[in-house]
């Protein structure tokens, strides 16, 4: 007798195999990509998991936004562009582009290092107790990556040129569960570069926990959701929608320079340890202060990307985004 | 004790010690051990990141599992499932092989465009070759002087001289080559050309392709039937397996196997062909008297390498 989980996994496996064999695999020979058949099979899984993830977000977070809104909006028009960002990220288009762009870094540099006698480490090499224990290893990676994400996020605010790009993410004035992936493409490139370099030092997390890997992404969507939720006694353990909304608040966290707070992605412990936590009960409007003075960050995808590049140019040439 | 009693004890002893099949689930870093008599999975455990291929040590004292992303070789007792030792800091061992004279251990790094030649006695690296791109499968010449490596990304076949430790030749072989195997008479190499749906026959002494044998879609990997004449070839995109007669260099038969047939093993009695079904988390068992899949056994994600302790002859 199969458990519900086994039944679900069997169904998922057969779906993935069918989509791969009928929709993806036939495209590989004409595209000259047959050598990447196994990667294409994994990408099929990524896209299907992304679809399931988006379905879950709509199913659970949309009703919660209606029932417990942190802000009341006259309409959800401003949310639409974030849906596009989410689809591009979670169905694998932008990760695929980043994978190709990072190829020289993750593979060529790795190969070059090995040719010169250096084999990059994994976390299990550094902490032998983790050997043969993939689940604790996965969680160890989750915590370490969250630590580095915290510091990366601080630099996205601290460095003027990076803030010029990160402003795309913060310019959303109707922040919802779709807003997590609203990022400038160059911001994605820098983030991917950082984590590719990190992977040369500590390796990449075990990839077999595909459902577990959904959890941090779903939690990040929840953190952006327009839901008036604090996590009570767990507020200091896990980033809540309220905690992260304060980070996106005009005049509270949504700033360049040092006047920001609540940078943590999953675990607020980093903010607490490094003195950037703010557990205020206030619920500020989201966005960037100069938007209220009329500065345009763009409402469509390409406008946001173009204006982000302009701000980057200003930051690099004039020192101010 | 009567002869009959002794015989009964011997039978019981054989039954008590299950004949084990080891399957590597490359996508989840696990091993599934299966009882070949009952077709039931015995256990399932973590071994490392991306274990793709495995083979016995030359003295059969252990099974080597190559974990490509963990950068290590795990020495396993297939009977008990015990990990005997872990040899770390072995760079990206994807496909592995021992030369017939047991002097060399070769590891292909598909991801990083490297072929590493180790001393098989102590596994110290002797020479690292940079071969673009995607070194995939390998075969050795009968005299152990040469290892042949398919270069999946650059559509080539390379020959490395193991005495001089130099690349002897590299020839264009066809779009996306994968498996490579020596014919039982030792005269030719067969190369699975995934992108052309064919098997290329190579005279390795002259480095010439002498024949193209049309096969199924995504012609991928080989396994000898064990009769000194026939070789199975899996067609991974077409979900079929074909049989090549190496005397006539023709395909004699093709039968369906679902879900991306990949690595294969033939039972010592020649009655069964076991195949990992890469896309559907299963192993298929083909009854070779009917060439039909008679069983499917659930395993883990992206099953790749498979090993029988008692298998048919490898040529």
TrEMBL record, chain A:
Keywords: Lipid metabolism, Membrane, Oxidoreductase, Transmembrane, Transmembrane helix. It is a multi-pass membrane protein. InterPro entries: Fatty_acid_hydroxylase (IPR006694), Sterol_desaturase/TMEM195 (IPR051689). GO terms for molecular function: glyceryl-ether monooxygenase activity; iron ion binding. The keyword DNA-binding does not apply. Pfam families: FA_hydroxylase. Signal peptide: none annotated. It is found in: Endomembrane system. The keyword Transmembrane applies. GO terms for biological process: lipid biosynthetic process; membrane lipid metabolic process. The chain crosses the membrane at residues 83-105, 135-152. GO terms for cellular component: endoplasmic reticulum; membrane. Residues 139-276 form the Fatty acid hydroxylase domain. This is Fatty acid hydroxylase. It comes from mine drainage metagenome.
From TrEMBL, chain B:
It comes from the Bacteria. InterPro entries: Host-pathogen_enzymatic-act, N2O_reductase_N, WD40/YVTN_repeat-like_dom_sf, YNCE-like_beta-prop, YVTN_b-propeller_repeat. This is Cytochrome D1 heme domain protein. Residues 9-314 form the YNCE-like beta-propeller domain. SUPFAM superfamilies: Nitrous oxide reductase, N-terminal domain. Pfam families: YNCE (PF21783). The keyword Signal applies. It comes from Ferrovum myxofaciens. The keyword Signal applies. Keywords: Signal.
